[in-house]
Each structure stands twice: as structure tokens, then as C-alpha cells.
Write the C-alpha cells for this entry.
Amino acid sequence: MQNSNFSMLKNWRTYKRTLPVREVNQKPLPLFELLYFGNDADVQTLGSLLAKVPGTTSRFVAPYLTAPGAYGKTSSVLPAFLTNDDLGLYVYMSFSNNAERRHEGPSVGMIETMHSQKTNPDLAGVAFICECLKTQLEEGKYVRLDPLPEWFTSITDGTADHIDKLRDQIKKLLQEIRPQQKLVLIHLDEHKKMWEGKDARAIQFRRAAVQALLAVDFVRVILTFTEPPSLPVDAARNTSALARVALPFARAAADKVALHFCPDILNMYGTPMDWTAAEQRVWACCLLWVGLCIDVESPTALHQPDSQLRKGFSSLTKWLRSKGAKISKTQFLARFGETFNKVRDWDKDKSPLDTKVVRQLAAGIPDADTPQNEAFPTLVSVAGQRLCLPLFRLLYVRPLNQSELSSCFWRSRDVFLEDMRKAPTQVLVGSPLERAVLCALTCREYLPLPGLPDIPVSFEQLEPGRLFEKVSATGSEVQLARALESLNSNTLYYDGHDGTEGHPLADIWFCADPRWLVLLDCGGTKKKAKKKMSAKQAQIRQLVKDGCLSDWKVTVLIFIPAAPSETIASSTPSPNVDIAIIAGSLAAEWLGSLSQLLQYLPEDG
């Protein structure tokens, strides 16, 4: 990247001055000097997407990041850049905060002047970003409002170059700094502060600035701000308009965090990957609580000794050292869960939301369908570039109208939360995962299935129960027939009998249509996916043989997110029976916001 013709790129010392900083203990520290705990797979994925943005054919595509607690976006970009060999130069340009290492957009007075002179906001935006780029690269400095910047004086006194000439200047400048014919990544942080506001001229100004960079074929741009970028009005959405794509955020790796701040875990119990499957599942629950704590308090808190997160790890470490080898792994895991499940008391934002909005975000909204004038809470992008509620917000948000708490969606959410509070005594691949699927079902209008018709879903009631009175299906045909005839078409049923053995046929069941029974069985591991499929086939075959399912269409869905792909059974016990494994990307799509759980699952479920 070194280039002696540009002040910013003369050497490492001049370059690192332009990299992002954050306040830690009232001291600005470069982010690259702080430990980064990003999930490896997430960082790799983000790095690949920075070079090749998915999901659109538009000419100008501006990808952006959202984050669960509105923190950690900026710190994830540079690590992702470093994973991709197609990217050769990282240029960080901030427009707010960053310890004053930032470019200043037009002041109120300057905006009023441009309004009165009917200045072209497209020309202004391109002139602005051109001066920002030149000032930072050639002088290692930033555009300031005093004295009046050149971009503003030139467009108000009529001496500014034509907009096409300004774009050519930008391209030439970037060509001169392009290293080894690789891509140049430009990170526009707090980009909405270029010209703050939601009016059309401000949006046009920002859009033109971003477009001028995107027009250079070897340039990639990433935007970071707490809200999605403003799109142009509908009439202006064409191939030359700015498109936006939400990229998946690189979440903090809770296991890295836990083992770094509490190394006594490794010293006393060895690597969690070597623990038993049952211990790993309880460990997954513990990590889920740590992940929620990070989202609520922010990744920056990991660098602050007085944060709730660091205090929690300090308390756990002292307890371990005081007890020594006397503490069993089971006791340790219980203590770990107790230490960090207090996250429910940390939620910074308890403001209620409209139920319709919560359900939409819980299911996941494609970025292009996001309403432009909606006041959204903090968002996070999940698989498929869908915008969702952060998991900690979904768990604790309340409806605007409290009378709606009795609705199917809110009741299913509370059933999920109740099981979450039992962790780590409940394992993540067991009951909590079942409850997550239960909640996800109440957010949708249909369930997509590979190679099968979509299943319509619409529920008004939520009821716990059982299809069989006994654990074994053998000899229970009478009970099953009686149970089927009593099913209501608008009710979502789930196995809700505490303290009893597992359900023999399904964890969740409902009627998609009259006499169309859908059975959902959750959990399992990818190693056992085929075995579980065979077991369900045998179970259903026996029920068909005994005439229990006469005149019923039956769809059996085995929800195993750890399995590598979606699989349809090659043969079924009856023409009216379909069996499918829901896994991989389809499982994540089904779960929507709740797919954030999947990162905590053990490697094999």
C-alpha cells in the first residue's frame, strides 16, 4: 500500500493516523490495537462479501452493516478486509466522532446558502467527497468548516468543475493509489453525517457522494451507521440510483471471549471441544448468555475493566480459584450460567414497539422491502441479507398495546423466554430450540419447503399438550385418533408438559388445512439426522399401517439446523405422507431473528 506520492501512504506511521479510534477509559485508542473477538467464519464471510456484493444487479450498490447493539460495526471491517486477498487498500473516512479525525459536512448556514442559491445537491455531494479524498490522501488531514472548504466556495461562486470532471478526478486519484491492480475498499463511517437530515436534498447529496466512489470499477464501498442508508424516492429508483444491501455482521465469538477473560476454564477443565456432548450443550447455553451480554453492553465493554462483562468474568475467576479442584464441571457450568444470565436486567432500551413491526422483524424483512419512514430500533442483518431484531431486543421488547400480550406471538415469545431463563439446566439443542421454532412459526404466513408445496400458517391460539398420553407410540393409536379429531385449525400446539419424558411423535404440531397435519420434531445432530429420519419413517409407517392417519395428509418436518443441507426423504410410507429435514440455510430462514441462536450451537448440534 505504501506510496511516497501521498502523505497518508508514505509509511505506516502516516497511514495508521487515519485508521478508526475509539474512546476507552477516556483515551482514544486505535481499534487495530485492541483485541478483536470476531467469529472466524463471520469475519471470513464479511471479507468475501466486501469484494463481491450479493443480491442486486444495480449499477451502484452500497453495502452496509447493522449491529445488534449499534456497536462493533467499524471494528469488524478492517479484520474482514484482511481476510480477502482481492482487496489491496483500506481507506477509512469518518464523518463523525473518531476523536476529531473526521471530515465535516456542511453547516446549517452553508445548507441555507445552498438552498437559497438552488445549488445542485448532486454536484455538491461529488465536490464534497472529492475534496475529502484529496485532503486525506494528499495531506493526511480532514475537511473542516473554518475556513470555508473549497468544495463549498466553488459551487456557490460558480467556479466548480463540471460534475463529470470531478468524477474523473476521483477516479484518477484512486488509480494512483491502487496497489498491484487490487480492489480499493473505502469505508464511509457515519456516512449520514455528510449532510445530516432526511430531506430529499440531503439524501441526494449523500447518494451522489457515494455514487462517485462506486462509479470507479475497482472500488468497493462499505457504509456504517446505526440505521440503514436512505433510499431515493420511488420515482428515482432505476439502474443509476443507489442500491443498498445489508451485509451480515461479524458477531463476537463468545467462546473466545470466555476463554480469554477466564483462562482458568482451560486450566481446570481442558478444551470444551473435548468435553462430553451433554457438557458441550450446556456450555452452548452459557455462551448464549455471554453473547447476549456482549450485544447489550457492546463489544467495546470488553476493553473496559469496570464493565459488567469484565466484572462477571472477574467474579467467576475468583470463585474458581477459591474452590480449586473441588468444583466439578457441572457445578462450574451452573455457576457460569448464573453469572451471565442476568443479561435480562441490563437491557438499555425497554421502549415498546408495534406488534406488526416486531413480527415482521422477527421473521426478517428483505432490505428492499423495509419502509423508508419507519422509526426502527437497532437492527441486525442475518442470512440472506434480511433485517431482523437483535436477539436481546426480541426477548425483552413489549407491545405498544399491552392487551396484545395474550396473542399467539407474544405468548410464544414468553414461552421461549421462560425456557431461556432455565439455562443452563436446559440444553440449547433441546427445549430452547423447540421454543425458538415455536415463536418463529407465529411470525409467518407460510413455511417454504424444498420440492414441496409451501405450508400456510396462521394461528390465533397457543396450547401445550400431547398427541400421545404415553411415551411409546405402541398401543396408543386410540389416543392419537382421539387427539387428531380434537385439533383446532387455528391453534399451534407444542409439547408443554414439564417433568415428563420426551414426546414420542412431535415437539410441535398443527393443522395447515382441515385434515392436513404438520408434525415438527426439533433438535438432534447432523450425525444423527439420517438416523432420525429413518426412525420417523418407521414410526409414521406403523401409524399408517394401523389406520391412525386415515384420510389425513401428513407432513413430517425434522428441524435439524446442524445438518448440512435440506433433504427430502426418497420414499415415504404413504402417498399422503411427506417427510423432510429442515437444515442449513432453510433452517436459518425459518428462524428469522431467532437464527442468531445458531451461532452458539456446538459443532455437531
Remarks:
- Residues 277-297 form the longest helix (21 residues).
